[in-house]
From TrEMBL:
SMART domains: ELFV_dehydrog. Pfam families: ApbA, ELFV_dehydrog_N. Belongs to the Glu/Leu/Phe/Val dehydrogenases family. This is Glu/Leu/Phe/Val dehydrogenase. GO terms for molecular function: nucleotide binding; oxidoreductase activity, acting on the CH-NH2 group of donors, NAD or NADP as acceptor. Keywords: NAD, Nucleotide-binding, Oxidoreductase. The active site is at K66.
Amino acid sequence: MHVVRGARSDIPIVVAVHSTARGPAIGGCRIKPYRSVGDGVADALRLSRAMTLKCGLAELPHGGGKTVAVLGDAPLTPPVRENLVLDIAETIRTLGGRYRTGPDIGTTPQDMAVIHRLTPGWAFCRPETLGGSGNSSAATARGVRAALDAAVAHVRGTRAVTGLRIGVIGYGSVGRLLGRSLAADGAEVVVTDRDDRLRAQVETDGLTWSTSDLLRQDLDVLVPAATGGLLSPESVAGCTIPLIVGPANNQLTGDHVATLLHERGTTWIPDTVASAGSIIHAVCREELACDEPETGARIDAIGAKVDRILAHARTHGTTPLQAAHALATHHQPATA
């Protein structure tokens, strides 16, 4: 764990390195407000731990890490933000290659280009024009769709989503791609987002806008596609949705919530599996010299991974989360 205050921006920067057993730690760079530096540290620790699990399940030569820049009440002006990215690059450079970053909430492929230039290449997802793998949204959505189709087959006996009522929480770039894809395949898609300005786009896309708590709605599938922490003991208490699968990171407030969902008859697909398309795409294209068809096939294989997780959970009487940990451990060397 590395916590520093940026020399230029005066903003606290947290870098958590959870494991380097498989190779250098990787994980996105998040710039967002927190109530305290301690909250930012806790978020970085949770996310870095999840990244280790994600890399293990995806069988990538990396462990998990995370960068969090802890914003306060002061506005993040363009000059301060520019200095913050420079501070983040400097912090990553001091780790000597143990950690490599990528875009996350509050950062962009352009930011990764700056970090890549100022470190010896320790940033993924630069713009394609600069030699990177570009925006990861399409890869993330492709992986989530593979996970969703496999999970639907487990719950309903068929991969078809035609006629299903599917709720999407969050209509950012990934949520939008998923909503459109599911509607194109015949699902009735209901969307909610904190940003009411997105309603026009949702309705233009032929989807239904809702201001209701989708966890309490009569849905066949729920797709969390916003920030984490959605699923808590309180929020799942009245949930009757058969299947939850989506790209949002750290959807559970604690691992015990997976047990609560399982006891209520809800199949929850760990986000560490469902959202792995982005890191598979970045690592395959930028490190492993895979072409797009091979990379796409590895992303689509997330569906087969979900099949294995659910089969393991059924055979051993565990939750999908416990099954995911068991399978990741099978591929994961001892943590360094």
